[in-house]
Write a structure and sequence with these properties.
This protein folds into two domains: 2-90; 109-336, 2-Layer Sandwich (BirA Bifunctional Protein, domain 2). It starts with a helix and ends with a helix. Strand 6 (243-250) and strand 7 (253-262) form a beta hairpin. Helix 1 (3-18) packs antiparallel against helix 2. By secondary structure, the chain is α+β, with helices and mostly antiparallel strands. It has a seven-stranded mixed β-sheet, sandwiched between helices. The protein contains 13 helices and nine strands. The structure holds 3,4-dihydroxyphenylalanine (DAH). Residues 170, 172, 212, 250, 253, 284-286, 307-309 line the site of 3,4-dihydroxyphenylalanine (DAH).
Length: 339
Amino acid sequence: MNEKLQKIRDDAIEQIKAAKGMDSLNDIRVKILGKKGEITSIMKGMKDIPKEERPAFGQMVNTARQEIEAALEETKQKIAAAAREAQLKREIIDVTLPAKKPALGHRHPNSIALEEVERIFVGMGYEVVDGPEIEKDYYNFEALNIPANHPAKDEQDTFYITKDLLLRTQTSGTQVHVMENQSLPIRMIAPGRVFRADELDATHSPNFHQIEGLVIDKNITFADLKGTLAEFARQLFGPDTKVKFRPHHFPFTEPSAEVDVTCFKCHGKGCRVCKGEGWIEILGCGMVHPHVLEMSGIDPNEYQGFAFGVGLERIAMLKYEIDDMHNMYENDIRFLKQF
Ligand code: DAH
């Protein structure tokens, strides 16, 4: 073999065998076999060789080239295998280690309490409906017998978006939507978020939740209201819970009442949960005012009904003995996990 060619081949194979990575291997390939590589330039020198020797010389160059290519391929395989080996070592998995558990969230006490309330009323044949959080003044106040300048508007200081549009202060407006849209009779509860311009403290929040209830049918009396809410209280707080109806005033019901239940913790003796009273106030209610029925197109001579409004946070905080409203809105998993 031509001496020069032999030297190129030997040097190339030596360099290839010594190559440490794919990059340097590629550099060597370009240097030897590339367009400007050593083998290529030797081929170009063919024209200086006597014609009759050219086929034999060409043969030699090809052989050298094949040997170099084979060496390249062999080293490439070796480097790839070594890289794979190193990767496997790096990624070794100790299957005996304890698994990492994904951090799971927890249901909010409000959600747990709401499901309980919904279960009770659905069990009594009520439908669960949704009302808008952004509400017209008409639905939040006017149609509930609270005309402009009524003092009850002051008690529920609210966030106005425009003069006629506001963040609802109570879920009671959903009663009006349902009376306007649904065929009679009606048996519904409407849970949802409400807003009032209150500071956040241990017992108040600028946004909280209520559950509204409405029943409209023929021959509905205060006895139906009492029986329904007494059954609700027993299912929610325990079978020996007693209820007390205290006369109260709401513009959209007549007569109206506030309902107290015997303390589920001390059963009426007086304790920390009921602040020594033995009784706990849980909701407002009453017989739907005839004027409210009329405004929504229902004839009060033919149909009567009752309504009630429960504060969801109040129920959850009582049931789970939570004494500070702040906890309800911080979403601290350490707090939530306790219920
Ligand atoms: N909406 C009243 C409030 O926020 C609660 C209420 C009282 C709702 C009596 C009613 C009801 O439906 O009949 O204070």
